[in-house]
Design brief:
Residues 1-37 form the signal peptide. This is YHS domain-containing protein. Keywords: Signal. The protein folds into 3 domains: 1-40; 42-91, no CATH class; 95-161, no CATH class. By secondary structure, it is α+β, with helices and mostly antiparallel strands. The chain is 48% helix and 16% strand.
């Protein structure tokens, strides 16, 4: 094998490897953009209207065309009136502790609350990870709420950004 033939073989392998690397990079960029888009449009409260927890007997499903972004999250609303009410005073309607389970916080750890297991206590929305947690919270709500509030920032369930 002469030098030209060897260099030709290495050049072809380099070109193939370069194409593979380029395609891999392109794929990773596309995948991360898709993941960002998916995360960006994830609705808070499983797409339930946050205002409806306080004004209806059960939470209502929100609509995509009546959504807005607040606190680093996307919120959906059942009607224009609810969206306007939320726009004017979001802290009243958004769940306390960014939706973290209030009992878990009182016990010192973070757990996500579920949109369908909730309690409106002192005109504030609280979420829980189970019905048992909600029932236990109701045994001493004022004490547990104070404990949850004091521990919320430590486990990153503090105020919305």
């Amino acid at each position: 094998m002469d030098i030209l033939m060897i260099s030709d073989v290495f050049y072809r392998k380099f070109v193939r490897t370069g194409r593979i690397a380029w395609c891999s990079l392109l794929f990773l960029c596309a995948a991360s953009a898709f993941a960002y888009a998916q995360e960006r449009f994830t609705y808070t409260l499983s797409m339930c209207d946050p205002v409806s927890y306080q004004v209806s007997e059960t939470p209502e499903k929100g609509r995509e065309d009546l959504s807005l972004s607040w606190g680093g999250r996307v919120w959906a609303f059942a009607n224009e009136g609810n969206r306007e009410a939320f726009k004017h005073d979001p802290e009243v309607y958004a769940p306390l502790f960014q939706g973290c389970d209030a009992l878990s916080l009182a016990q010192g750890y973070r757990a996500e609350g579920l949109a369908k297991i909730y309690l409106v206590y002192n005109q504030r929305l609280l979420l829980f990870q189970s019905r048992e947690h909600r029932a236990l919270f109701l045994t001493a709500p004022d004490i547990l709420l104070a404990k949850a509030q004091s521990r919320a920032r430590d486990v990153k369930c503090g105020p919305y950004q």
